[in-house]
Specification:
Pfam families: DeoRC (PF00455), HTH_DeoR (PF08220)
Protein name: DeoR family transcriptional regulator
CATH class of the largest domain: Alpha Beta
Organism: Aquibacillus halophilus
Mean pLDDT: 90
Number of helices: 10
InterPro entries: Carb_Metab_HTH_regulators, DeoR-like_C, DeoR_HTH, NagB/RpiA_transferase-like, Tscrpt_reg_HTH_DeoR_CS, WH-like_DNA-bd_sf, WH_DNA-bd_sf
Helix content: 25-40%
Radius of gyration: 18 Å
Strand content: 15-25%
Distance between the termini: 17 Å
Number of strands: 15
Largest sheet: 7 strands, parallel
Low-confidence stretches: none
CATH topology of the largest domain: Rossmann fold
Shape: globular
Keywords: DNA-binding, Transcription, Transcription regulation
Structural class: alpha/beta
Number of domains: 2
Strand order of the largest sheet: 6-5-4-9-12-14-15
């Protein structure tokens, strides 16, 4: 991971959790504590956080701010593409699936083969990507446009999902906490993802290793509603064991 990308992710995690210790960031990114201290010093100079004894605290004015899509597109790109390719392997001809408005779902849409499936989504980027694949039937929710995520949210988007039932939902999130479940930084995105979980047989959570142990602003669901977790190869062994103890099927990119 590049230095700038790591620092961007530190700010993202910090804004979600409001405070974090140097030792925890060191474990998340597999770098030394001294490296993390240099990152925090740079980010404090840029007024993106405030350092505290042994860690840092957020200076974000709002817990529910959503990062612009253009920023999320360049964060953990390698991991997201690998996870997306692994997710595509779970899709079979004839499936009816949901893709959320995450960048990982967009990468998944790009990688989907042109086969007879149905895709239900609230993502404009996913709709545009699949428009050239004529064998794929695409259904968009409609609703209020959220420019940060290029997606539809709000009551209309949520209620439109009540008309459907799908086999599989592929959903990303801002954090997965073993005890507190999965969560999102934006409440509107959390509400529509809750609805997506309600109308599917199988839930696949697509999440990179830096999001484990994170609890974001808006809770999505408990872990007992999740069937599969797709993640990258940098997941810690301890986290793997905890997921197995929760009877979750872990799909890890090799």
């Amino acid at each position: 991971m590049l230095v700038g990308e790591r620092q961007h992710k530190i700010v993202e995690i910090l804004n979600e959790r409001k405070s974090i210790r140097v030792s925890e960031l060191s474990n998340i990114f597999s770098v030394t504590e001294e490296t993390i201290r240099r990152d925090l010093e740079k980010l404090e100079k840029d007024k993106k956080l405030s350092r505290s004894h042994g860690g840092a605290i957020s200076v974000s004015p709002s817990e529910s701010l959503e990062l612009p899509y253009s920023e999320r597109e360049i964060t953990n790109v390698k991991e997201k593409k690998e996870i997306a390719l692994e997710a595509v392997k779970q899709v079979n001809e004839g499936d009816k699936i949901i893709l959320d408005a995450s960048t990982t779902a967009w990468y998944m849409a790009k990688a989907l083969p042109n086969i007879p499936i149905t895709v239900l989504t609230n993502s404009i980027k996913v709709v545009m990507e699949l428009s050239a694949k004529k064998e794929i039937a695409v259904i968009s929710t409609g609703g209020i446009l959220a420019p940060e995520s290029l997606s539809y949210v709000g009551p209309l988007a949520e209620s439109s999902l009540d008309s459907y039932h799908v086999n599989k939902a592929f959903i990303s999130c801002k954090g997965l906490h073993i005890e507190r479940g999965i969560s999102e930084s934006n409440e509107q995105q959390a509400r529509i993802k809750k609805k997506m979980i309600d109308i599917t047989d199988l839930v696949y959570i697509m999440i990179d290793h830096t999001k484990f142990g994170v609890q974001a602003f808006s809770r999505l669901s408990s872990l007992d509603k999740i069937d599969h977790v797709i993640t990258d190869s940098q997941i810690k062994p301890g986290i793997m064991q905890q997921l197995e103890e929760k009877s979750l099927n872990l799909i890890k990119v090799n």
